[in-house]
Specification:
This protein has helices spanning 5-15, 20-25, 28-31, 42-53, 125-129, 153-175; strands at 18-19, 58-64, 67-74, 77-88, 93-101, 106-114. By secondary structure, it is of the alpha+beta class. It has one domain. The longest helix has 23 residues, at 153-175. It starts with a helix and ends with a helix. Mean pLDDT is 84; it is low at 1-37.
Length: 179
C-alpha cells in the first residue's frame, strides 16, 4: 500500500482537510521511520499533487478496502481523486500516483519511485501523457491504447495493469456509493 494507512489516517484525523502538500509534509519527521520501504517520499507526493491539481488545493482521505484515497478540493469544490499505489516490476515495486477528475477520467499518473535498474522510461512525460483522459471504460491494452517501450516491457505492462486496476477500484467505489 502507498504511503501507509496508519500515517494517512493519523494525519487525516489530526489535521482534518488541509492542503495536499501540507497533509503529506506535516509530522513527517516523527513518522518517517514507520513508513514502509515501499512508500513514496511525502515531498514527492505533495509535488505531484500540486502539479496535477494545482497549488492551493487541499486533501482529505478516505480508507476504502484498506486503501487510502485522497479527495482533492479547491475551496469547497471537489476536483478529483488521487491514490498512491505499488506494482511489482521485474524484481522491485514501482510506486506511482493515479489522479482522476470527478468523472473518473485520468488527469495524470506519476511515477514516484522507480527502483529497477532498467525500464525507468515509464516515468517520462511523453509516455505518461497517453493515459490522460482515459477512464474505467477504456481497456488500456499495451500496444493498442498504450505504447510499449523497448527495454521496458515489464515496467510498461506492470504500470498499465496497475492504472487499469486503480480505475476499476475507483469505478467500483463510485458504484457502491463510497466515493
Amino acid at each position: 500500500m502507498g504511503l501507509g494507512a496508519r500515517w494517512w489516517n493519523r494525519a487525516a484525523r489530526s489535521l482534518g482537510a488541509v492542503s495536499g502538500a501540507s497533509l503529506l509534509l506535516l509530522s513527517v519527521a516523527g513518522l518517517t521511520g514507520r513508513l514502509s520501504a515501499q512508500s513514496a517520499p511525502p515531498k514527492k507526493v505533495g509535488a505531484a499533487l500540486d502539479r496535477v491539481f494545482g497549488p492551493g488545493t487541499r486533501a482529505d482521505s478516505l480508507s476504502l478496502d484498506g486503501t487510502i484515497v485522497l479527495r482533492m478540493f479547491r475551496e469547497n469544490e471537489l476536483l478529483g481523486y488521487a491514490q498512491v499505489r505499488n506494482v511489482k516490476g521485474k524484481d522491485q515495486p514501482i510506486t506511482y500516483l493515479v489522479a482522476t477528475d470527478t468523472a473518473l477520467q485520468l488527469k495524470d499518473i506519476d511515477i514516484l519511485v522507480y527502483r529497477e535498474p532498467y525500464g525507468g522510461e515509464v516515468a517520462y512525460e511523453p509516455w505518461r501523457r497517453q493515459f490522460r483522459g482515459k477512464s474505467p471504460a477504456d481497456s488500456l491494452v499495451v500496444d493498442r491504447q498504450i505504447r510499449g517501450i523497448s527495454g521496458a516491457t515489464i515496467s510498461v505492462n506492470a504500470v498499465t495493469a496497475g492504472v487499469r486496476a486503480a480505475l476499476a477500484s475507483f469505478a467500483r467505489w463510485r458504484e457502491d456509493g463510497r466515493l
